[in-house]
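Self-study notes.
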Amino acid sequence: MSVKRNYICINVIFIVASLLLLQTVQAQADWSSLDQELKMKQKAMGNSLVVMVWKRGDTLVYKKELGEFNSKTPAPIGNASTWLTAALVMQFVDEGKLSLDDKITRWLPEFEKYGKNYITLRLCLSHMTGISDESKFLKKLFEKKKFSSLEDEVNSFAAREIRTNPGTDFWYGDIGADIVGRVLEVVAKKKFDVLIKQKLFNPMTMRKSSFTTLDASALDPSGGASSTADDYMKFLVMLLNNGTYAGKQILSEASVKELLQIRTNSSIIKFAPKAAAGLNYALGSWAIEEADGKATALSSLGLFGTWPVIDLCHGYASLIITKDLQAEQKPDIWKSVKQTIDTQFPSTCQ
């Protein structure tokens, strides 16, 4: 009887071990399809780029460096900067120093002087200030160079015409993020680039990330950051992990939920960049996939060839950063790359 029981136990152990081994083999991702796709599309994406994928609750599972570029090299990240600025605002909300529904005139009286009394921080981060804005990127870039400080630039916004009542439509641009950046300067009595370094970059060891300008022009919270693939991935992992990074609570879970909540619908979007056509907006990022009115995947699309993603259903963060300015956004390529990455992670959403 004892021999029979031992035989049965040995067989059960063998079967369990075999199943565990099979699960391990099946769980090993096959990235050959992504390798091939990136090779085919490398030229279209600017030749020199970095692609990274991080699995939730795990570690970096994929990294590819192509051309004359690597994950430690800083590059301008364009409007992917806005996601960083929005996160910094939420840190102040967590500390009780700000509310998203605070009116900006509390800190920026210049706007009250021009009758812009109903613009809130939430509306700024949602691109719904109603202030007249320019849609041409190069012209806006040239305009920014005229100002020597963020204060001067934001004061110029106060004097602009109101295109529509605040909160009534969405117009993608740099005005809202720059306004909240200036509000943070007033609240903290520090320059924006120093502030975000101390409160966001340093705690996450994002040592090569910066908003500091080299030409003495105004700081640009909406699109003026430079970062590395290694650094920006840390930020994405923090969002993916509900506000924690390396055991540190960078943002509360409530603040992360605020950042990821959809703020728009198709009827109110009056202007959006080509890469975001048909998408809704959260706070600092676009809902590139959604279900039942909730964002399931988000990205802060960068005009310089930066494409960060967090996918809540598939449980991963991915990032593409290119070395040089991309003259044209290529949303079809980005979508195709994401679909290839998705195949490596089962979805937890119904």
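Second protein, same conventions, sequence then structure:
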Amino acid sequence: MPRTLTLSFGDGDFPVEPMKIDRKKLYGWTEIHAFDDDGNECQLVSTDSSGTIIIPKGGVGLGMESSDGKWVDRSELRTVNEDGSDAAMTPSSYSQVIELTRKASDEDLLDCSITGFYHLVGADPGLIAAVGEDIYTFDYCYRDAYETSPAFILVSEIDGTNQLFMFVGTKNDFGFIGLDEVSTPDEEETDEDDESDDIDFSMF
């Protein structure tokens, strides 16, 4: 069942259902299957470091261990700030009302690597009209977590009808080198003796 995201704009609350649009839905996909000489489909397996033990699919997993080599359960882990205090967990965006109060520029959107693209199904026409040509942003969190992702709400036209969309991504940090930081390559040292070995093309 699709989850409902509640957007607040002005004095109204507007529930929408984010429907993820991925490359498979846009372009389709291909699958590669391997078969043996008898026509049976081959299954992907793993091997141990020696290459002599076959591990069936699902038999390999990731785990964590302490510095003394003991197994650590995920529930025992805690996230802390730089000063060692417990980090505050951000509630899921689906468990609260998202207020659209912050506008973003085109550059703010383009400075992010987009990882999720959603069509906000069931968006109220009044909300779509209120957003208009502006871009609104908020901190998005799919589930309760310690980190959020920048999300952008904007309107785009499809088949002559304005629709509401949401982009979720990660902020890119661009390093800037000013003119005062331009470096010059070191001058190569030349050996006077090497110059005597140059070819004199007048000899040919």
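Instructor comment on the second fold: The CA atoms of residues 46 and 55 lie 5 Å apart.
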